[in-house]
Amino acid sequence: MLQQPEHPNDLARLPAKPVDRIIEPLARFLRIEAASGILLLFVTCIALGLANSPFADVFLSLWKTPFGLTFGAFEMNHSLRHWINDGLMAIFFFVVGLEVKRELVLGELRDLRTAALPIIAAAGGMVVPATLYLAGQLGQPGEHGWGIPMATDIAFVVGCLAVLGTRVPAGLRIVLLSLAIADDIGAILVIAIGYTSHINLAALFLGLLGLGVVRGMARLGVRSVPIYCIVGVVIWLAFHASGVHATIAGVILGLLTPAHVWVSAGRLHAIVQQFTAYVEGERWSNEGKNHAALRDIQVAAREILSPLERLETALHPWVSFVIMPLFALANAGVSINVTDFREPVAVAVMVGLGVGKPVGIVSFSWLAVRVGIARLPAGVNWSILTAGGILAGIGFTMALFIASLALEGALLNAAKVGILSGSALCAVTGSLLLFWLLPKPVRSARRAA
Fold first, then answer.
1. Residue 374: C-alpha distances to residues 117, 178, 446 (Å)
2. Is-contact 158 394, C-beta < 8 A?
3. Are the C-beta atoms of residues 250 and 91 closer than 8 Å to each other?
4. Which residue in 192, 236, 288, 415 has a CA-CA distance of 20 to 30 Å to 148?
């Protein structure tokens, strides 16, 4: 049977593989904006279902399973939940650091006037919920959980906005996403300052020294990811031993990641042209030079993207579809009784998320607009911003994380009930309000006609 000649356009693409038929549909799903939020919701429901089923004892004890590493005199033994919360979540916080760096250098937060509204709104969305929480818990056993209702879960907010589709004004999307990034910065500071119990200065100095080494390697032009990974693990171990929460190391490493490209598009084009001339000439015979020319192409093609962009693109699917679901599975499983909703800590968290978030965001935004520091973006009025503020009350991932640092036992259980119920109410209420307030695409198209 004669083989059909390849079309010239097909030669410009890599040859197809049988496994692509399996991978491509999965890749398309992973690119759906709401996919990570859908998976997170699904896993949370599984965790809640198992924690309230006859298998509850087995499921909840699974995360207490000890797991350790021993190397000579060095030994680390922790529960499976601890490895997820302190180990895998360091990668989550590293990606958060990358996102913050991108927004500060290349995104909406690089211009102070543009960033004024989401930054000020985020400040209100942190101060007011914490104040309301303390109003009900000051002097009580749950007082230390004041940071729980302060952060917004960006994955669920993006998922809710994606469900509403093109009806969401670009200005509201930018404000909410930038607000969530600013919230993350605030939550990181809260973890570093409010939930650090003791400091081992020697270990902290070693961690800071490691960060200096990373900075020095970047300035010297070291581009090897494995080397940075090795140094990063040492930094994580040092921070873990220092008493400062180890995830902070991930954030700082993300902020230190270069956001600018090393190889320009023009240089890549010149290298490709030189390689083409080399292939078409008579010099395609020296094996050493062949490999050197191919290596130059490979390095140039990789380095036309900044390290920040490469790492964020590579790690984001792992964080969204592996690490965050694992975290939810390990932390969202809570045995729920009707009486738990009346627990003071649960009520304080729900009030902080459901009332504090929108009140703080809208009031601080109104004040900023009133004094002329900021202005509402196009297509956004105060009603729409209020609905967006309610949507920002979805705390989930960061709220569960802070709760695990601040509380334990029955208090932690009550806080989780408050987080889950408060986040669910904010998601439903905010989405329904936006659905009602935003014009339908068909109606707006008729109006334009």
1. 5, 14, 32
2. no
3. yes
4. 236
